[in-house]
Amino acid sequence: MAGCSSCSTGTGTSGGCQNNGTCGTSDCNKMNSFDWLSHMGIPEVDKFDIVEIKFKGGRKEYYRNVDHQSFTTGDPVVVDVPNGHHIGYVSLQGELVRLQMQKRKVKNDDNILRIYRVANQKDLDKWEEARNREIPTLYRAKQIIDEINLKMKLSDVEYQADNSKATFYYSADDRVDFRELIKILASEFKIRVEMRQISLRQEAGRIGGIGVCGRELCCSTWIHDFKSVSTSAARYQNLSLNPSKLSGQCGRLKCCLNYELETYMTALKDIPNVEKPLQTEAGTAKLQKTDIFRRLMWFSYNNDNNWFSVDCDRVAEIIALNKEGKKPFNLQHDTAFEGEEDNSKNNSDLEALDKKFSTTTKKKKKKKKKPRPQGAPEQGNQPAAQTQRKPAPKGDGKPPRDKQQSRPSKKPRNPQQTDAGPKNQESKKPQQKKPNRPQRQGMDNKALGGNSDKPRENKKKKFPPRNKGKNNNKGDNTNE
After folding, report:
1. How many degrees, rounded to 5, is the angle at CA 115 between CA 110 and CA 117?
2. Spatial distance between the Cα atoms of 420 and 182, rounded to a whole number of angstroms
């Protein structure tokens, strides 16, 4: 039972990865290519004898199964290489290998080397020792390059399984004379050195990483034949020409720009080419946006903010009228018509987007600012006024009148009692702060000639006075 050297599980059946190649490492070789012909019952007599083998960094090559051994996808095998042997993983076998060779234009001739056997534990241990030398060699080689002042970027080092050769992968803008570097590296590490220049896309594929889509980079998983990507691919897909958004981790345009380019090119055949603004009696209509798959085009009059959606067939008609020197009434009609035009459906998509983002912003503002309860500021500003107005009048709802003004006292007032008014006024002031207590009931009885010990029972409830004048002070004096 051989194990996957990079998986967390560490073991697998028949030398393969137990995670079925989903561990995400470059050396886990339950491969990305799916053999969809494996269960179709193709006769073994016609089985293709060439197997696809994957090495470090996603490099794939083809080897011949001379001894007709049975392999499982993910098995580590020992293969023949010039001046030694190397270990790789089986990635694909069967008829799909024939199709891959035709796609990559690999000839089925005698130049294809052979597969020796399935790697045993001794071969894997020796290969692991060689791989442990790669990272220290990489750091030391970068120091040597800086000392020599060579304008090159060293990205990866790969040791052969028999520990007889090391391949140094580098990238550079111009040609580099590395003859002196090879001598230093060979004497430093006591190994045969091979320098191989790669492109920036291949460098990103060997290093690996996670793209903006959240998946592993395509160049490190399944893309091996890199095609050129031009800015016209972004223009055809109506993408903004922003280098920071269109560039990948390699610094070049993303390879995924070519994925849907053919679909866009097919859809653009039915879209009219608007080379200049459309001329109408309502004004000059300038193209603002094009929805390729819905076949809608948005125009605005004289660079106005209001956009009007027009079908592509209608745009073609207006272009034909402009070539004849004619101007339609507007984008929707050729002649004038009575009534108002309903433009509510023209910007339905844009209004839906505006409403969507406007509601989210309002919700965020509500979360930031805590709403106050209704009436809270009024209660905080005028607490005393509300407490004094709590008792509501019962009866006809008229405001209470002062009894002494409406009913003059029958007994003559004592002048001695009136002289003591200011003293009593100071003593009675704190009692007037309680509005709910009927303070004037006994006072009014004396003022009207009644008995102070037995207050007269009133059928109608009277309310405390609101005015604090001289009459109240005089009545208080009579109580004393």
Report:
1. 155
2. 122
pTM above 0.70? Answer: no
What CA dihedral angle connects 135, 139, 140 and 145, to 10 degrees? 130
Q: What are phi and psi of 458, to 5 degrees?
A: -95, 135
- Give exposure, 148-161, as e/b (b: 16+ Cβ within 10 Å): eebebebbbbbbbb
DSSP code string of 426-441: HHHTGGGG-TTS--SH
- Give the span between the Cα atoms of 241 and 235, in whole angstroms: 8
Token representation of residue 55: 């090495």
Q: What distance in Å separates the CA atoms of residue 305 and residue 333, rounded to the nearest whole number?
A: 21
pLDDT along the chain (480 residues), means of 10: 38 38 41 60 68 88 91 92 92 88 88 93 94 94 93 93 93 90 93 92 88 88 83 88 88 90 89 89 88 88 84 90 88 73 58 71 54 56 47 50 49 49 46 50 46 51 58 45
Angle 168-172-173 from CA coordinates, rounded to 5° = 165
> Strand 192-197 vs strand 165-171: parallel, antiparallel, or unpaired?
parallel
